[in-house]
UniProtKB/TrEMBL annotation, chains A, B:
Domain Acyl-CoA thioesterase-like N-terminal HotDog, residue spans: 38-123
Domain Acyl-CoA thioesterase-like C-terminal: 161-285
Annotated signal peptide: none
PANTHER family, sorted: CHROMOSOME 23, WHOLE GENOME SHOTGUN SEQUENCE (PTHR38110), THIOESTERASE DOMAIN-CONTAINING PROTEIN (PTHR38110:SF1)
The name this protein goes by in its record: Thioesterase family protein
Pfam families according to UniProt: 4HBT_3 (PF13622), 4HBT_3C (PF20789)
Cross-referenced InterPro entries: ACOT8-like_C, Acyl-CoA_hotdog, HotDog_dom_sf, Sec_Metab_Biosynth-Assoc, TesB_ACOT8-like_N
Length: 288, 288
């Protein structure tokens, strides 16, 4: 059981947890959903992009005939703030095994006009309906046991790890010491970030929380010695299997920083050593 | 100079080539473009997904204030056929350094109703406006010299390499013998495909032709011993730099085939050893 979760008398369950409550959307009319974006998933003042993707993914799961995001691509347009938002969805195509949908998240300006924050295209299916065949050459990341990794609560004097924020209280995030150099003023120079990941209340992972997981680690840019903010331009996630219960292992790699942009490739592995999600994002580096 | 191009008295130029003519869109009204999809970019009877992406990318380049696709995500809905099509674009956001647009390609059913084939979300910018900094750990693929690789014209008795088709006449595609086992009935079992790539008329690469390049090789599934069709569900391309003149090297890798789906990760390198494009697609495997 995740260390952070052991503090809870009772582990939260899928459907009844902080994450589920904070991603809950209310159907205003067919295809249109209201939500109050929680301040609990912010880093500094920015609402986490993975949390926002999970909100959009949940609205699409309700709007489409299929329940699981097989591939979802998000383009981030303007910075979201905690507070009221509306998600407008469109069913682009409803097929037998796959359906495709579009969703946009809007917030409101001073005059109450809608401002688009994110636009998403996604194809959904039913993970439980897939054949069991697995032929993979992918290997789980080499990461030390969870009790040898470091989270916000482990830092000296209980001071949070630099870069952590409100979202840190809701995550069980234990970073591989091998990718923690940035937090100690000695970035490795390698574009790598690895961690054990779970939700702090012990809720197990599902396809929706995988959308949060791929964007929940500190940016690889920190290990490249960059300190600025790294806003996501576009993030695409492939959910490849329903995750088994227990903590996830996440490895993020950046190979090419050029022209002020970099890619972040994330792999998410479950406790059964199954590659459950792959993602890639294009992010912008504010140098200095 | 690419071998295939040397046959031409004069090399085609960017803006005046087969590829440019076959991706040319005609503005019907602001944001709406007509095109006659060429039969010259088909594999068996299917219009190549990269060619279609280039058509959509070209329409967006005209509709948006920026000219280069930095990141473009396409969801393939129904199979396109050669012939008339219309591209409808929407400017989602016009920013200073990036603009985001959406585009859909439609064709017509028997009753003349529009049927959507592909929907795309993309963020465009200006590659020439980016700073020159490059910090990469990515290395060009290990691939034999072009004259030691094999194309359709090199196969015994001039018989085309299995799987090649009309598009083969328009490409300078030379496959690494190390990933050609499938064509000889001895697939390697590794999800890898590598090739030298160019356009047959010698036209140099540009950001638009990179959208074609990432989807132009035989599917890695062939080297995994699968023989069926591998339709693309979603394809995302990041164009990272304007390619230098000369042939490209493309390496495609599949690490995870599971539940009847696989990912294809492509890297495209130019003659200056610059990583100019990265792509990932989720494709469906029709087993058997």
């Amino acid at each position: 059981m995740p260390e952070a979760a052991s503090a809870h008398a009772l582990r939260a369950r899928i459907g009844d947890s902080e994450f589920d409550r904070d991603t809950a959307v209310t159907r205003r009319e067919p295809g249109v959903y209201d939500i109050d974006l929680s301040a609990g998933w912010t880093i500094i003042n920015a609402v986490n992009g993975g949390y926002l993707l999970a909100v959009l993914g949940r609205a699409l799961a309700d709007a489409l005939p299929h329940c699981d995001p097989f591939t979802i691509s998000a383009h981030y347009l303007t910075a979201s703030r905690p507070g009221p938002a509306v998600v407008r969805t469109e069913t682009v195509r409803a097929g037998r095994t796959l359906s495709t949908g579009q969703a946009s998240l809007f917030q409101y300006d001073e005059e109450g006009h809608e401002v688009e924050r994110i636009r998403v295209l996604a194809s959904y299916g039913d993970l439980d309906g897939l054949p069991d065949d697995v032929r993979t050459t992918a290997l789980p990341p080499a990461i030390p046991p969870i009790d040898q990794c470091f989270g916000a609560s482990d830092s000296p004097d209980g001071a949070p790890v630099p870069g952590s924020s409100a979202i840190a209280d809701r995550l069980m995030l234990k970073l591989d010491p091998g990718t923690l150099g940035w937090a100690l003023g000695a970035p490795s120079g390698r574009g790598e970030m690895r961690a054990w990941f779970g939700l702090a209340d012990g809720r197990d992972a599902d396809p929706l929380s995988l959308l949060l997981a791929v964007d929940a680690l500190p940016p690889t840019a920190f290990e490249l010695g960059l300190t600025g903010w790294v806003p996501t331009v576009e993030l695409t996630v492939h959910v490849r299997a329903r995750p088994a219960p227990g903590p996830l292992r996440i490895a993020i790699t950046t190979r090419n920083l050029a022209g002020g942009f970099l890619e972040e490739d994330a792999e998410v592995w479950d406790s059964a050593d199954r590659l459950v999600a792959q993602s890639r994002q294009l992010a912008r580096v504010r140098l200095g």
